[in-house]
Amino acid sequence: MSRTPTEVADRVGSVFAEVFDRLADWRTAIEARLGTGRDIRPADLDDAVADLVLPRLEADDPLLVGAGFIADGEVVRGRDVHFAWWLGPLDDNPVLGSTDRPTRLDLSTRGYAEYLRDFRALEWYRIPATTRRAHVTGPYVDHLCTCDYILTLTMPVHVAGLAGAAGAAGSDAMVGVVGADIAVRRLERALLGAFLEVDAPLALVNEHGRVVLSTDPALQVGQLAPAAAGASIGCPGTPFSVLVGPVGPGAS
Q1: Which domains does the chain have, with CATH numbers?
Q2: Can you list the positions of beta strands (E) in 88-240?
Q3: How far is Cα 74 from Cα 165, in angstroms, rounded to an integer?
């Protein structure tokens, strides 16, 4: 069996469409919960988010390595930020070791303070806040949790009548982001077979030309693909493109 590069690009689009659809479902549920107008206790919000994300993190061979909701502003009893975020089971993680079940991201036990001091300026939050649309950040090395290359998908959550950083009470205020982390290693497992069914070397790159995965050994994850790389085919509904080789720096 063989595929065309366009079919591979379509496959990439379908994988990410499933994650975006899941985020949209979670957003709808969270907006409904926050839209009740009652004070939200942290434990209640955590329970609601856990019910949404844990089944996906506990699935067999999950694509996601983390997921949850990051609440901004005055949503949770006057807190400036609240992370209702879980990490899926991890293999031989240098920070958390090996885990066989999802774990809650505990901000009190890690040195997150400096990272979160201006979290609204971070790409995974700032872009959805500005565009009011879903966004993909990465690939980048997640030094906080997985210590590996990941992609972070985030989607803004808006609720009328709540005071958030992006709007006054009574307006359609942004109150946080719902999101999910995809490990590049797991994305490779989902996509590499399709990439290898094309005779020419291929590379999946983000909108800045940074490599996500590649069948060209000269291109590694996180590397910038050469400007003179081969033909580019957009992956529907994503910021990614498939480059058709030769794509490595030494190609002639």
Answers
A1: 5-186 (3.30.450), 188-244 (no CATH)
A2: 103-104, 135-141, 149-160, 172-183, 202-205, 211-214, 232-234
A3: 8
Q: Are strands 149-160 and 172-183 parallel, antiparallel or unpaired?
A: antiparallel
Of 47, 15, 7, 6, residue with least CA distance to 30: 47
Long-range CB contacts (within 8 A, 24+) of 75-83:
75/34, 75/40, 75/45, 75/162, 75/164, 75/175, 75/176, 76/40, 76/41, 76/42, 76/45, 77/39, 77/40, 77/41, 77/42, 79/42, 81/116, 81/119, 82/42, 82/45, 83/107
Token pair, residue 120, equals 């609204």
Render pLDDT for 178-235 as a digit per residue (tens, 0 to 9): 999 999 999 999 999 999 999 999 999 999 999 999 999 989 999 999 876 678 999 9
